[in-house]
Amino acid sequence: MSVQVVSAAAAAKVPEVELKDLSPSEAEPQLGLSTAAVSAMGPPAGGGDPEAPAPAAERPPAPGPGSGPAAALSPAAGKVPQASAMKRSDPHHQHQRHRDGGEALVSPDGTVTEAPRTVKKQIQFADQKQEFNKRPTKIGRRSLSRSISQSSTDSYSSAASYTDSSDDETSPRDKQQKNSKGSSDFCVKNIKQAEFGRREIEIAEQEMPALMALRKRAQGEKPLAGAKIVGCTHITAQTAVLMETLGALGAQCRWAACNIYSTLNEVAAALAESGFPVFAWKGESEDDFWWCIDRCVNVEGWQPNMILDDGGDLTHWIYKKYPNMFKKIKGIVEESVTGVHRLYQLSKAGKLCVPAMNVNDSVTKQKFDNLYCCRESILDGLKRTTDMMFGGKQVVVCGYGEVGKGCCAALKAMGSIVYVTEIDPICALQACMDGFRLVKLNEVIRQVDIVITCTGNKNVVTREHLDRMKNSCIVCNMGHSNTEIDVASLRTPELTWERVRSQVDHVIWPDGKRIVLLAEGRLLNLSCSTVPTFVLSITATTQALALIELYNAPEGRYKQDVYLLPKKMDEYVASLHLPTFDAHLTELTDEQAKYLGLNKNGPFKPNYYRY
């Protein structure tokens, strides 16, 4: 007799920046590495005396189209979909109706009799009806954008926070929480989720071999002893591994989130439980965002001396609100195109009073995080939020930098028809030779099914473009900031916002046309899905080495300017990740090295080399 059991499931401003070239004398400090940085990097693979990094890196051109995100989320499997992420209805309507039934039994002599009829019962969880009918009772502190559409603390994807399965809308700022050690110097969604976050961090450690190797190699010397690092990045399992590595190397850290949607609540709880002052939760309001940054910085008796930033918001806040504190900073490490824009702007105006390291334009960030990370995560983000099929869809990708290249390659491989917009003739020519049609956005806006921005610019998609889009066109952003799509122009009385699921909104025009807006124009992959941990290991290791270098550099090595990561460090970060692939590097002979004019242990390329 067959038995069926049906269970009810609750489905869950940045101004343009003109860059100035460094003269050889200005860039000279980049020639050497601090003793601590060299020590942390360990002996070169081929033995021999460690060589100084390559000649000073030339100043990159103004960050242009294609600069993309730099931080990430860890895979989180098995999370319960959030009921409030879907349209609320009576749970009984979600069940399939079944009729009582039985089976016919045949005896050996051929007699047919009817088996007893068995009633098939539905299983309903005890708290199911309560979960569906419960309504948020407290909105808390919210910006205009948060009040128009339902809080994205609700989540649908498996990348969501465990805390998101709760309908508790109380702002973490209104809660009194303590970790097991009695400390309350943190503000997270729910400290009780720390155990789940610890498991995610442990999973991420398995895919971050270089960072773990650096932690093991350098923790005995404590090259960051005395460093007080204040950070503002995506708070994910990968970031947690970086923070704990910095702590193992001797640093004190205080952290906030650089994006209101990308924080994994359980990971933030795990860090708070471990003693890290973390101020972040998924679904912050704009007011919450700046409050969290201020709580990291404005602490009695604690003066930060290093900044690790992603987007420049933390640097901007300290520079504007605490100028005396800013002057005492030893170094800034910035990993996004948006933040680099701001640093070069300060440098050009003569207002940058501390040395800064531009990690965004390092080879290990541009060629790996921006390209390979986005090539995989763009499909993940779109699929989780829209469940769409890519084959045959017409897509326009705005920007053909490293992020744009990754997005285009992934979509083309899935059978999409891809158009590209560009302002840079070099990137435009690359797009053409890669087989993509170069267009202006106005030429295809009426026919495309998906619009993706990844330029690092502002107002790439304007209200005029949005008005002309076809019905059900999907609009999303793969750049760091939410300035690329003019979402503010959609906050008007004649347009209706309808929350479909977490991070997915229908914006409906009076004539019934609607577009599908993802993550309210913010970074798609970190807001709506996950990103590959291994790639983020490369970026995180680069950040850690940059912090070690700036903190331990002797007086005068780095002036009050923006520098690229020394080439030697880029190569070292790459070499730490090769054993994962069982890769074997070829070594130069003495004769070959002499012929090329290189040291056998690198660096192997001049700083002007374009990989």
Output the strand order for the largest sheet.
Answer: 13-12-11-14-15-18-17-16
What oligomeric state do the depicted chains represent?
single chain
- Low-confidence spans: pLDDT under 50, at least 5 residues? 1-31, 44-103, 118-167
Radius of gyration: 26 Å
Q: What is the number of helices?
A: 21
Strand content: 5-15%
How many E-type strands?
Answer: 19
Instruction: Note the overall shape.
Output: globular
Q: Write out the CATH superfamily name of one domain.
A: Adenosylhomocysteinase-like
Q: Helicity level, as a percent range?
A: 25-40%
CATH topology of one domain: Rossmann fold
Topology of helices and strands:
Layout: E1 6-7, H1 24-27, H2 35-41, E2 104-106, E3 112-114, E4 122-123, H3 128-133, H4 144-148, H5 194-206, H6 209-218, E5 228-233, H7 237-248, E6 252-257, H8 265-273, E7 278-279, H9 286-297, E8 306-309, H10 313-321, H11 323-327, E9 331-334, H12 337-348, E10 356-358, H13 363-386, E11 394-398, H14 402-413, E12 417-421, H15 425-433, E13 437-438, H16 441-444, E14 450-453, H17 463-468, E15 473-477, E16 496-501, E17 504-508, E18 514-518, H18 524-528, H19 533-552, E19 562-564, H20 567-577, H21 590-596
Describe the structure.
The chain is α/β, with parallel strands linked by helices and 611 residues long. Among the domains are: 173-361 and 554-584, Rossmann fold (3-Layer(aba) Sandwich); 371-528, 3-Layer(aba) Sandwich (Rossmann fold). Helix content is 33%, strand content 12%. The protein is built from 21 helices and 19 strands. The strands form four sheets. It has an eight-stranded mixed beta sheet, covered by helices on one side. A seven-stranded parallel beta sheet has the order 7-6-5-8-9-10-19, with helices on both faces. It has a two-stranded parallel sheet with strand order 1-4. Helix 6 packs parallel to helix 19 (533-552), helix 13 packs across helix 14 (402-413) and helix 13 (363-386) packs antiparallel against helix 19. The longest helix is centred in the middle third of the chain and has 24 residues, at 363-386. The relative contact order is 0.16. Keywords: Hydrolase, NAD, One-carbon metabolism. Its cofactor is NAD(+). Its EC number is 3.13.2.1. Residues 1-184 are annotated as: Disordered.
